Amino acid sequence: MDLCHVPTAREKGWYLALMAPNVKGSNYAWLDPSRLYCHPQGLQDCLSDLLQPFQGDPVDMVAGIDAMGFILGAAAAARLQKGFLAIRKAGHLCVQTQAQPYTDYSGREKVMEVRIDAISPGLRILLVDQWVETGGTMRAAIKLVEQLGGVVAGVAAICIEDSEGGRWIQERYKCAHCVPPHLQPHFNRHQ
Predict the structure, then answer these.
(1) Total domain count, the chain
(2) What angle do CA 130, 190, 2 make, to 5 degrees?
């Protein structure tokens, strides 16, 4: 799809066609949404779809997950006129942090951290990431927020796969993603 073309009929998820398949091998995600971010209307419609379920909900801050969640998270924070919190891979913050180990979608053991002075008890945080594959990364972010007394106001991602971890998150938290139900089977790679 041309990066300047905007379809006349824009059904939910039309911008998913902008994403490119992985051509670099198993160390990379199977689909790359970064091309979607280059398309001005695609990015705006994606944000609208992600944030629509949270209209009227109390959200105090948006947190994006390292690294691609920073793009959507910061854009969502700007749209909602809220602050943005970066949840980082360990070793990138020079302030006091709370850390949480996790296993990512590729099966690698990692550690995520967040600055402890940004989350106060009761603060309602919308967690945003690009993709929820197996749910390990998002579950670590949820644990960090809750360990510091914050409340997860919701989870938003371009896709939440129908994996065990994705279902666990959707059963416990208000969630939004951009994949229409009839296309969901095509986006599930980590079952």
Answers:
(1) 1
(2) 45
pLDDT (0 to 100) of residue 190:
58
Rounded distance, CA 99 to CA 91, Å?
A: 10
Q: Higher pLDDT residue, 5 or 69?
A: 69
Q: Which domain holds residue 144?
A: 31-188
Return phi, psi of residue 20, to 5°.
Answer: -110, 140
Beta strand 124-132 with 61-65: parallel, antiparallel or unpaired? parallel
Tens digits of residue pLDDT in 29-43: 667 888 899 999 999
Quote the pLDDT of residue 2: 65
Taking the C-alpha atoms of residue 190 and residue 143, their distance in angstroms, rounded to an integer, is: 22
Residue 106 lies in a domain: yes
123: CATH: 3.40.50.2020
SS3 125: strand
Tokens of 30: 């199977």
In a domain, 166, yes or no: yes
Q: Are strands 109-115 and 124-132 parallel, antiparallel or unpaired?
A: unpaired
SS3 of residue 116 by DSSP: coil
pLDDT digits (tens, 9 = 90+) for 100-117: 999 988 889 999 999 999
